[in-house]
Amino acid sequence: MDTTNFLIRSGSSLYRRATRLSIVLVFLSLVFHFFSCSEKKEDMPIEMLVFALALNDNTARNDSNSSNDSSSDDTTDADAATTNDDVAQETTRIAPVLNALSIGSVDATSITLNQPTFATTGNPTPSVNAYIGLDGTISVSGATVNNSLQGPIDVASESHLFSGLLLNTSYRIIVVAENTAGYSVKQMLQNTSSTQTTVVTFDDNSLSPDSHYGGAGSGMGDFTSHGVSFPHTDATHSWSEFAYSNKTDKTTAGFINQFSVYNSSGAEGSANFCISYVALDWMGGTYDPIPNAITFGSVTTVSGAYFTNTTYAALSMLTGDTFAKKFGGVSGNDADWFLLTITGKDNSGTATGSIQFYLADYRFADNANDYVIDEWTWVDLSSLGTVKSIEFILTSSDDSAFGMNTPAYFALDNVTIQK
What we know:
- The chain is of the alpha+beta class.
- It contains 3 helices and 27 strands.
- The strands form 7 sheets. Strands 12, 13, 16, 17, 18, 19, 20, 21, 22, 23, 24 and 27 form a 12-stranded antiparallel beta sheet that branches. A 4-stranded antiparallel beta sheet has the order 8-5-10-11, with no helix packed on it. The protein has a 3-stranded antiparallel beta sheet with strand order 2-3-9, with no helix packed on it.
- The longest helix is centred in the N-terminal third of the chain and has 45 residues, at 46-90.
């Protein structure tokens, strides 16, 4: 109950007690007067009897009111207690407590912060903001972050990719969760990678649907994709080295379909891919395959790449054509093969290592294991080490005095390099 009600009730109680005392005193005076009149054989005046009865009635009413007032006081206190409990429930507040931060992924120029989690969520629901800055520059005072490069960024319901960062640099990430009850701050250090990953997809070169770049008499020259150089040699009736394409005709056999991959798309669903034709050295009279080479802008490590057959080469090996045999022969027992050899070269042109990948292999004792590659297949090239260029040569079991009979084509995509 408040102070005013207390004072009013206290005053009323004192007033009732004083009134009762006065009545008692008057009553005793009347009794005394009564006995005096009895001894003198006199009657009590009628006015005094009326006054005594009135006092008795007033006393009874005051007692009744006092009882009612007490009942009213109890109800008011109970109501007040109930009201105070309701207010306490409505104003209950809990400060948030963050768990330690975690990182989803890191590369040379980006860091992904996972969605922050809580040991205590807090009430009311807190805001959750993330910041990133150079370690030693960014700082936090209380719930205020200073000198951030990016932020505040709302990460209450999702992770966030901090992009556009510097290679091999130490960054501090700060997350602040805050509500009206308080705040929680967590921070962590994270370095960007010392190497940058680049995936050569060929999709950075535009093509019309169902078309290709290069070929005999095209007048087109060398091209690049994501900073890697691909030579293209063009002549009136022939071409060699590299072209790029988005053609996926898997049914048309022969030379007229030389730019189609034996698949429905580029590697990992990409649109474009690279087609390589390895020419034979007929001018030198050896008819040996001439290596095709791609060159990097600087020395680098190649993690790997995807390889598969072209439609021209695949159908030739599966069914044979005018110039080449069907792999396995009539019986299916011929131990045929079609091999891609990949060689790394350093800055001086010295070989750093070689890797062999069979685009077709019929050398198994069980013919059921014979195969022609018909899907994009990842080949790990990291064992080549640090290279400036990579050379590709095709050889086949189907050979003659004029060189390899199997169409000397392969498809390449998603060359992944680290710099």
